Amino acid sequence: MPNQSWISCWFLLSSAITFWDAGYCLMRPRSMEGGDLHWLWKPYTLYGQMDYVYSVESYEKGEGFASAGAVMAVVENLTAYTYLYLVHVANSDLAPLIGYSAAIMTMAKTVVHVGQELFCGLCGIGHNGVSTMISYWVLPKACVNFSLDTVSCLIMFSLGKDIYSSLRNNKLKTQ
């Protein structure tokens, strides 16, 4: 298996950020303003005002989209940690497939989050003025998701080549 240490570094870095985000959603109401753990997630006070999906009102209404996305993020991170284990401890040939799967999950979350806003008529962010929406939702989301998705594509390309090579080599061995 080729040296993929950059993928391991990325999974470690991105999972820390993703776990923090998922933690906010899964620890509600304690993570929200007024909760005893809010100090860990202070930026979400503003974010909950910009994007109703993360708001106190959304939580109180029992809307589950944010929590469902958080659960998906936890599964994504556990998949990435499985890749790390398979690469650095078990030295398993299964590692590229697992890493590829983690990268796909990252991209799928972006599609679902953006699709949610588009298909619900901007129900989470449409209350903002255009300049506020662009400054506090569109640009930050674009920067973060562009980074996550660009690296995910690079991971998928790199690990996809490994998977292809492995399949091709096994096919040649059986002929």
From TrEMBL:
Superkingdom of origin:
Eukaryota
Q: Which keywords has UniProt assigned to this entry?
A: Signal
Signal sequence segment: 1-22
| Record keyword Signal present | yes
Q: Does the keyword Signal apply?
A: yes
Q: What is this protein called?
A: EXPERA domain-containing protein
Organism this protein belongs to: Dendrothele bispora (strain CBS 962.96)
